[in-house]
Amino acid sequence: MISLTINRAAMRAAMPARQQLAASQAVRYASTKSLKDAVAEVVPQKQEQLKKFRSEHGDKSLGDIKVENLIGGMRGLKVMLWEGSVLDANTGITFHGKSIPDCEKVLPGAGDLGLQGKEMLPESMLWLLLTGNVPSKEEVKGLSEELAAKGKLPSYVEKIIDSFPKTLHPMTQFAGAVGALNHDSKFAQGYKDGIKKTEYWKPTLDDSIDLIAKLPAIAARIYYNVFGRGDGVQKIDPKKDLIGNYSEMIGYGDNEGMTDYLRLYIAIHGDHEGGNVSAHTAHLVGSALSDPYLSYSAALLGLAGPLHGLANQEVLGWALGMQEKVGKNASEEDIKEFLWSTLKSGRVVPGYGHAVLRMPDPRFSALSRFCDTRPELKNSSIVQLVQKTSKVAPEVLKEHGKTKNPYPNVDAASGCVLYEYGLKEWSYYTVIFGISRAIGALPQLVMDRALGLPIERPKSMSLDALEAFVKK
Ligand SMILES: CC(C)(COP(=O)(O)OP(=O)(O)OC[C@H]1O[C@@H](n2cnc3c(N)ncnc32)[C@H](O)[C@@H]1OP(=O)(O)O)[C@@H](O)C(=O)NCCC(=O)NCCS
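== Citrate synthase ==
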């Protein structure tokens, strides 16, 4: 009997050399896709899923809208499609179904790419958010290389940043520089050239990758101009990951702990479902077909608000104020007293409470866990004070009785670690958050275009119209 199993080596030997090379490349590319190829595979599946779901369930109700919702900041209303992550009040954030501890286990980290450090890479998180799949090490390496190749700023953006007064808040500078990059937007150009609606997602993805690649250089240039730290030179090493290069540009390249902390910080701040101010802003502005640079510039301005991203700057100022008052080895009683003095003065306790969560923020827990693994942080008096406060504050806030969630959110911990590593310029902290939020908000913009979502246009009502409506 003749066997039909043909030996691969024998097949190769029978092939001409050029054909052999093409076959070996085909095998390599099949196992290490580019991010664009991976998204191209997902888009038709998502389009089909939406089409089917809409036709079968388009008329199902997701709940009533109460007057209270309209007046109360639309809390809890299910009114947006958001693919990357879901925030559950009692279990916290999941990214395509994966919790932060799950992500820490499965997403390729610095060590997997032969870099110093252990934490998951924001590139891995970006891949997961865009495709719903865990990338291989090789895929993440390819993405890191792509980002490094696209990381340098055009000179006009450098000049714009250099011309800002040092006294202009770093977040305003960040939004200005990001908005200016729309000068080179492939989406804006494609739209002008009349590309088909079904193709919109492609230049949106190109712009998004380009922007994510350039955010570290923008942020580093702002740091240099405002605070004179780092050297302001765009040193982008193609062998380093996105955050390895960022850390180098802001002067922490040889600080392994800080570089790894920045990776973790930026990976876990990326996405927090769609309704938060920065994510929602990117989606809303993008729904007018503004390109990714314009949409994300607007998102950054929302992130700059003290009830949202700016809270991480506020927490540090507040915690240092507490340290000055209560000393380095404060007792629980001292901390309680300080918390009450904040509340009695009519201020909120920064870093506590959340519009959705009703539990300690898992991002806070991840950062705390990082602190516990690093001796230089474990013994830091400000880190210890923040951790001690997180044990005492819930009790005080419960007794105070106003906030629906008395537990720490991510901002309670994020700034004190940066401070301990020597990055003491608090007004810069939200810029680091701004590098991160792009890896969640921009993938959704790509999905918005892939799914052909329309311009957002909810209905508003005046108080008089509301009164007339309820009397009917
Ligand atoms: C995050 C935040 C804006 C959510 O707001 P929210 O959804 O309106 O929160 P709640 O529904 O629990 O607010 C109910 C009341 O509790 C108060 N409250 C909420 N968090 C509080 C806090 N940390 N300290 C004191 N009071 C607080 C609110 O100001 C509100 O008071 P009001 O009725 O007098 O206006 C709010 O908790 C806050 O201001 N926290 C401090 C800032 C912060 O850490 N922001 C970062 C969030 S990731």
